[in-house]
Amino acid sequence: MEKYINIIDLSHSLGYTVSGLIIFIIGKIAYKLIHPKINIQQELVDKDNFAFILSYVGYFAALIILIGGTIVGESYDFATDILLIFVYGIIGIALLLIAAWISNKLILTKFDLKKEIIADKNEGSGIIEAAIYIANGLILYGALIGESETLLSGIITFLIYWIIGNFVLIIASKTFTSWMSYDIHTEIENDNVAAGISFAGAILAIGIITMNAILDPFVNWTTTLVDISLQTVLGCILLPVIRLFADKILLPGRKLTDEIVNQEKPNIGAGLIEAFAYVAAAILITWSI
Fold first, then answer.
1. Residue 111 is part of which domain span?
2. Where do the TM regions start and end (predicted)?
């Protein structure tokens, strides 16, 4: 039996799993501490606030992606691995919450996303915030993968990648909203869930492309910045092309814009098709580059 089962490897795997669960619990506590005015139990159970549930689940999805990055990164000895899981996990939780707050303020500047979710139960806002969390989780995952000579240099590289990734996410999201033929702020504020799903798909796509750009092995900062810039520009150019593709191929004979904003009841299915097109294209781009 010992030939097939390595007890040491199994015990290490158990240690990584338990460490990941502890980081998850720390992340849950950190969310509560950062949002003291939100009664989570009340929103989930008493109010049945689906907008908040979307956002909350998005946060946990991002947290799991972050934990994955801390576990699957470069492996040393078991004790060092556990130490790095906790160091990068706790720093990552702080960066995830900070990045989500910054993104909320800078991507959709005309209203308070949290207020839309809690006070208005705006499901479009809920899914956009979920996408912002997940996109930031992907950026943190990309920043965690790689080698470093010392813990300090690893943390510095991690922080710089996080800053670059969030800068790219915000700029690309602003670029996306500028070329849309309708005002996304107005549609989201008017509870247009279809528009929220569509925009969430674009944010996720940008997050996937950004993660892929910073996943490449570090050579030097010039090479890294050039790679990230090229992939970001490529992504920004391809998003409108993909929307045209979705219009012609996935929804022939109709216009996505008409289905999402120019009818009395916005077509959530059309928003989902558009979001799928963006995410699928982003995945295809990461496989191709």
1. 7-287
2. 13-31, 51-72, 78-103, 124-145, 151-172, 193-215, 221-246, 267-287
In the block, tokens 């919450």 appear at: 97
185-221 pLDDT, tens digit per residue, is: 888 888 899 999 999 999 999 899 888 888 776 667 7
77-122 pLDDT, tens digit each: 888 889 999 999 999 999 999 988 888 788 888 878 888 899 889 9
Q: How many residues does the chain have?
A: 289
Number of domains observed in the structure of the chain: 1
- Has residue 65 been placed in a domain? yes
In a domain, 115, yes or no: yes
Q: Is 164 domain-assigned?
A: yes
